[in-house]
Write a structure and sequence with these properties.
Strand order of the largest sheet: 3-2-1-4-5-7-6
Strand content: 15-25%
Structural class: alpha/beta
Largest sheet: 7 strands, mixed
Order of helices and strands: HHEHEHEEHEHHEHHE
Number of domains: 1
Number of helices: 9
Distance between the termini: 27 Å
Length: 224
């Protein structure tokens, strides 16, 4: 079960506030030069477990929605971004088949396998036919030594396990990059936007430095 909201506020404020400016610069480049490829300018986009809203604040879309259990999402979201304080597997404020793209980053390691599956079921409910689920996820296959350095990591996840979870909940995987970004934004690479831009253009570097998987899945056709 996810941490309670007060605990989330204290934990993530302590972890991320000191590096917020650096993370903002990192996500500006990531969204513009990579993730935007998967998001149409007029799309309805939901950032699930949005955290500091780095993705949703920097992606271009027709309508942007941030969901997180941490109430701080309301102050982290940029102007024009809708916010909802909800569990990932109980999106009561989001209508069925109303979303074009759902983005989830660095979340599944924080929750149980049961919550991962129930979250995917809920994502499938809100996605329109032909919609996309984008997942950026630490891949325990390539960062096992440091995976448990964070207090709130409770479930080991790799890209192979996610393929199984997606399939079990009615998704087809259309893109699987097992090694994409480095494990954390504290490495030297994401400290400089010019290096991030260069890194994104050299997939060979991903195979050396990448420890997070990037995956794209779509609702299985003809399976209601």
């Amino acid at each position: 079960m996810e941490l309670e909201s007060n605990g989330l506020k204290a934990l993530y404020r302590n972890r991320f506030d000191k590096e917020s400016e650096q993370r903002q610069e990192t996500w500006e480049v990531l969204c513009r030069d990579f993730f935007q490829t998967w998001v149409a300018d007029d799309a309805v986009v939901l950032d699930l477990a949005a955290g500091h809203c780095e993705f949703i604040n920097n992606i271009s879309a027709g309508r942007r929605i941030a969901v997180d259990l941490n109430p701080d999402v309301k102050v982290r979201a940029a102007a024009g971004v809708e916010t909802h304080v909800l569990r990932s597997d109980d999106l009561v404020d989001i209508a069925e088949q109303s979303i074009d793209v759902v983005f989830i980053s660095n979340f599944f390691e924080h929750v149980s396998r049961e919550v991962i599956l129930s979250t995917l079921v809920e994502v499938r409910r809100v996605l329109r036919p032909g919609g996309r689920l984008l997942v950026l996820q630490p891949n325990v296959r390539y960062c096992a030594r440091d995976y448990w350095q964070f207090f709130d990591h409770i479930t080991p996840v790799d890209d192979r396990a996610l393929v199984e979870a997606f399939t079990a909940t009615g998704f087809d995987v259309v893109k699987n990059i097992p090694r994409f970004l480095p494990y954390t934004t504290k490495s030297f690479l994401p400290s400089w936007p010019v290096l991030i831009k260069a890194y994104l253009r050299i997939p060979l570097a991903w195979r050396v430095l990448g420890a997070q998987a990037f995956m794209v899945a779509t609702p299985t056709t003809g399976d209601a």
